[in-house]
Every structure is written in C-alpha cells, then in structure tokens.
Automatic annotation (TrEMBL):
Residues in AAA+ ATPase domain copies: 164-293
Family annotation (SUPFAM superfamilies): P-loop containing nucleoside triphosphate hydrolases (SSF52540), TrpR-like (SSF48295)
Annotated source species: Candidatus Egerieicola pullicola
Residue numbers spanned by region Domain I, interacts with DnaA modulators: 1-93
Gene from which this protein is expressed: dnaA
HAMAP family: DnaA_bact (MF_00377)
Chain positions covered by the region annotation Disordered: 81-129
Biological process, per Gene Ontology: DNA replication initiation; regulation of DNA replication
PANTHER family: CHROMOSOMAL REPLICATION INITIATOR PROTEIN DNAA (PTHR30050)
Protein name in UniProt: Chromosomal replication initiator protein DnaA
Length: 471
C-alpha cells in the first residue's frame, strides 16, 4: 500500500466518526485514492451518480478531514471511469450489490429501513449532530484523576445501575472529553438495549429545531414528540441556553416530562449550572437536582497515556521522549493531543520520516505556534486592566465606587470569567469576598454594556488580546 493510500485510510477513519454507518458505507467507503499532487487530491469513484452526490453533499466534509490529517487545505478532484486521466493503481470494479453503484430503488430503501430497525435504532446510533463519533466509547476513554469519578458516573448511567444520577450534569472546559463520554453512554446503552430511543444532540440544534417549528402546529407536534418520547436525552453544550428565554421555557417542559416519566437525562456544559448567566432559577434547580460532576485538566501521566493510546489505534510507534515532549507542550486539550498524533502519522506516511521531537515540534506549531501559553492568572488580568484605566490593583479589588474604578472592576471580573472560566465563587473570593450573585450580576451587566458600547468593547478586546499574546 502506498503512502497516499494510508493517508486516505486516516481520512476515511475521520469521516467515519462524522457520519452514520449507512452514509459512510454508501458514499465514503467505495472511494479509491489516486494521488496527492501538491495541494490537490485526486479520488476515484465507480460512477457519475456517486461523483455528483459527493461533490454536492460531502465535499466540505472531505476537505475538513483531509486538513485534519495533512495539516493543510486541499482541493478535491473526483473522477470516474469515463473522465479519469489518471487511473487508480488498483481500480476495483464496483460490486453489483454496492449501494453507491446506483440510486437505491424504492423497494430496496424499504428493505434497508426494515433492516435498520431490526438491527437496532440507526437513528439513535447516529445521533442528531455530527452523525455520531463511533470511536468514542468507554473502552477508548483514558481514565485519570481528573475524570475518574465522572467516568464512573457515566458508566453507572449507561448500565442503569443508579437512577439517582438523573439528571447527570457534566461540566468542564472544552476539549477534555465531555462529548466522548456522551457518545460512550449512547454506545453502551445501544449495545445492550438496541431498541432504546436515544436523542443525542446539542443545545444549538435543539434551539434551531424549536425556532423552525414555531407557528406550525404539525412541526411543533413533531418536535415535541421527538424529544418528549425519548428514553434517554443527551444534550451537549447546554450552557447555550443562556439568554434564550423561549428555548429555556421549551426545555423546561421537555425536561419535566421526561424526568417525571423516569427517563434518563445527561447534560454537558463548560460551567456548572449556577454559573450559566440568565439561566432561569427553576432550570438551575432541576439541573442541580441530580448529580453534578466535572472533568478537569489531565495530569502528565494521563496525557501520556492518551498519546500512547491514540498512537496504538493509528498503528504508529511514538518514542517515549517524543510522547513526553508532546505531553509537556499540550496541557489543556485532549483533542489537540490526538490531532498532533494524527499529523505525525500523516507526516511519516508522506515522507517516510520516523517520529522525532523535530517532527512533533512541526506538528504542534499550527496549534501553539510552538510556544505553550503561560497560564493566565487573576493577578495578570487585574494588572492589565489597572494599566489600561490608570487605577491600582488594590482599588480594582476594593469596594470603592468611583466611576473609573467601578468600570475597571467590572471589566476585570468579566475578563477573568472569559479567560479562566473560574467559578463565580472563586472570582468573588479574589475581590474581597464578594458573593457569587454579585459576580453574576457584574458579568451580566458587562455583557449588556459590550452589546451597546462599541468603544468599551474595543477596549475589552484589546485587554484580552494583550493578555493572551503576552501571557
């Protein structure tokens, strides 16, 4: 197998995590790689029907997958037998039964639909966004001190061993495995109970579906039936309910109906319920009525294990010194660790070079510009704001109400929340023990100011930029 064929296998692996099994089998699996010529990828498909569908529906997704594997944008040229100037090295004649060879006939579609229902709810397995991540299971999740309790809670929910974890609310920064755990719950349940109706989506999709149903009774009934008849409801990024009063109202009733019927609800967020700005008190109360658990930054040993596991899955050996270098440079995001391993694999396939620290440095450069950001402290943020407004850090933390001190204090609190994702209680403790309600009010007030005052917004953006660029 040549190097581009191996690269394309990585691309297909990534595609498989972004769509249903049916879509992958019909449209992506039959593609054959021809060659990579500079920044143009040449692919071969059996017929013009499949070529047309891929160009129309899957071009952007394929480009995204190639970029993730190769690290740069590509153009894609799809060719068929009739117009291929370069034939695949080993063209495979499409089998008569290959679904992509021709449009399915109505009776075939009916049979496929029946087959799907018999084998287990494909709609549920696929989920409602990103078409599911099929490599996100409990077996592929690396457990460490930063996530072991949350992992155990998710397994208990998936195995239905503790109904008291309802709802299960998982919070933590982006890229630390919350989506992986949601997918793992779904996979585990469907593996053992394939007829379970699982709705797996994100807050944005829920909102958009609700909005598109307003004013149309039939669509609204369909919307209600979809969500309120679920056996398990899994929703990612529930923090985006903030500021959406109508969506909160709709979700409140959906939540109540499911919860009262004893159906399992699992939610993820980048912050705990009490820190979701403008979340209604009754929703906060319901989110807090079950189990709240968090995922935090993985320690060095866990990061190293993640790198080793990903390398094993990609069938590549990464020397210990290289893996340790990556683990030391990328501390804040599991997806970044996995992405670097994929880039190292692609680099080896394309150049034949074995993984080295130099190769790892190049792979990391796109993510970090080869410099690990210095963790931003509250002191650093307060210092930057104090310089901007010519007031002392002590004044910013004080209870003084002079206009320039008050605005500096409000901006400092807002920027701390934006950059560090600290809880409102923790931020309050940094400001002479102010309570979380005061901090929440300040953040909300600053959000309103920034919406209406472009000058203040520009100042705040400059402060954030200076802090992130200079640490």
């Amino acid at each position: 197998m040549d190097s581009f064929s191996e690269v394309f296998n990585l691309v297909k692996e990534r595609c498989k995590t972004m769509m249903s099994d049916t879509a992958y089998t019909c449209w992506i699996k039959p593609i054959q790689p021809i060659e990579l010529n500079e920044d143009t990828v040449y692919l071969y498909v059996p017929n013009s029907f499949q070529k047309s569908l891929l160009e129309r529906q899957y071009d952007a997704k394929l480009k995204d997958c190639f970029k993730e594997v190769l690290g740069f944008d590509v153009n894609i040229v799809i060719q068929t037998e009739g117009d291929t100037p370069q034939k695949p090295k080993q063209p495979a004649a499409p089998a008569a039964s290959t679904p992509a060879a021709e449009p399915a006939k109505p009776e075939q579609k009916a049979a496929e639909s029946a087959s799907v229902k018999k084998e287990g709810n494909e709609e549920n397995l696929r989920g409602d966004f990103n078409d599911g991540n099929y490599d996100y299971t409990f077996e592929t999740f690396i457990v460490g001190p930063s996530n072991d309790f949350t992992y155990a809670a998710c397994k208990a929910v998936a195995q239905n061993t503790d109904n008291s974890y309802n709802p299960l609310f998982i919070h933590g920064p982006s890229g630390l495995g919350k989506t992986h755990l949601l997918c793992a719950i779904r996979h585990e349940i469907l593996k053992n109970h394939p007829n379970t109706k699982i709705i797996y989506t994100n807050c944005e999709t829920f909102t958009n579906e609700m909005i598109s149903s307003i004013g149309n009774k039939t669509k609204m009934d369909q919307f209600h039936n979809k969500y309120r008849t679920a056996d398990v409801l899994l929703i990612d990024d529930i923090q985006f309910l903030a500021g959406k009063e109508s969506t909160q109202e709709e979700f409140f009733h959906t939540f109540n109906e499911l919860h009262q019927a004893g159906k399992q609800i699992v939610l993820t967020s980048d912050r705990p319920p009490k820190d979701i700005a403008t979340l209604s008190a009754r929703l906060q109360s319901r989110f807090e009525s079950g189990l709240i658990t968090d995922v935090s930054l993985p320690n060095f040993e866990t990061r190293l294990a993640i790198i080793k596991r990903k390398a094993e899955l990609l069938n590549i050996t990464i020397p210990n010194d290289v893996a340790e270098y990556i683990a030391n440079k990328l501390r804040n995001n599991i997806r970044q660790l996995e992405g670097v391993v994929k880039k190292i694999k692609a680099y080896k396939l394309l150049t034949g070079s074995n993984p080295s620290i130099g190769v790892a440095q190049n792979a990391i450069k796109e993510i970090l510009n080869d410099n690990q950001p210095v963790p931003v402290t509250v002191e650093r943020i307060v210092e930057e704001v104090s310089k901007t407004y010519s007031v002392s850090p002590d004044d910013i933390r004080s209870y003084k109400k002079t206009a320039n001190i008050s605005i500096a204090r409000q901006i400092a609190i807002y920027v701390i929340r934006e950059i560090t994702q600290m809880s409102q209680e923790a931020i309050g403790a940094e400001f002479n023990g102010r309570n979380h309600a005061t901090i929440a009010y300040t953040i909300k007030k600053m959000e309103e100011i920034l919406e209406k005052d472009p000058k203040t917004k520009a100042v705040v953006n400059d402060i954030i930029k200076n802090i992130r660029n200079n640490g």
